[in-house]
Amino acid sequence: MSFENLKDIEKEVQQCKSCPLYISRNNVVFSDGSNKAKIMLIGEAPGADEDKQGKPFVGRAGKLLNEFLKLAGINRNEDLYIANTIKCRPPENRKPAKEEKAACERFLQAQINTVKPKIIVLCGATAMESFLDKKLKISKVRGEFFENIKGYEGIKFIPILHPSYLLRQHSTETGSPRDLTLKDLIKIKKTALI
């Protein structure tokens, strides 16, 4: 199935019953930000706050992400298009099941093909595993660009640590997870401007 624009994709997602998550969701969490953004950020799955509001990254982790974006000079509403690997909240905030990710994969691919970002930020291990080798460890490859990914030629992918992980890491010392994430976001901003 091909889509003309993001509204068509969102309409299809709203009607989706491809996996059981549609039964328990309050809202589909489709996207946020600019459809003209050079940077696309892909997260794992909606949490409780996202399910209530219908927007990605609006809970505690989202607030922390916003702080880091601001420090890096990235405007969430203008410079970024945000989506998740799945569009409905898994119960108990568990990791998305393989079948759930498969059910949403065509929608995420359509979002990428429509937005045409220059860079895709893979926020956390679950998002990273959707596009890169599943044997990779995010702690080892965060901040590295990956190119020539089949089906996504011309797009640079870069994993970063998920802000929910950073909520448990309070240090901002050089080399700490928070410090590294800020450096990664600054690198992403600079690369997007080239």
Automatic annotation (TrEMBL):
The keyword DNA repair applies. It is an enzyme of class 3 (hydrolase). Keywords: 4Fe-4S, DNA damage, DNA repair, Hydrolase, Iron, Iron-sulfur, Metal-binding. GO terms for biological process: DNA repair. It catalyses: Hydrolyzes single-stranded DNA or mismatched double-stranded DNA and polynucleotides, releasing free uracil. Its EC number is 3.2.2.27. Residues 30-186 form the Uracil-DNA glycosylase-like domain. One of its GO terms (molecular function) is metal ion binding. The keyword DNA damage applies. Pfam families: UDG (PF03167). Belongs to the uracil-DNA glycosylase (UDG) superfamily. Type 4 (UDGa) family. NCBIfam families: UDG_fam4 (TIGR00758). This is Type-4 uracil-DNA glycosylase. It comes from Candidatus Galligastranaerophilus intestinavium.
